[in-house]
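Example record

One chain of 106 residues, shown exactly as stored in the release files.
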Amino acid sequence: MGRECEVSGKKTSFGNHKTERGKAKYLGGVGKKTTGLSRRTFKPNLQWIHVWLPNGTTRYVRVATSVIRSGQLTLEVDGKEQTFPLIKASKGSAEARKRLKNLYPI
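Predicted structure tokens for this chain:
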């Protein structure tokens, strides 16, 4: 799969790094001049997290930090796409698991 978020589909994208010299016109200069262009990559900030799924199992998922901040996961569970709250599988998450089971009865 490579460097790609399993939830949002974010992956490495490409662009240019532009090097300029001079002073902008609005600051009183004669304008900026481009002195060089080089290719660069934009990589998503991916993290491996251990999450609880609605069917009661756990799974390691590689997701972007923007997905972790949103708190919602949309994954294929038991052959169908499901959106559910992100609950990290760790010690002390028993209460969160109970809430998840109440929201998504198995």
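Notes: The radius of gyration is 22 Å.
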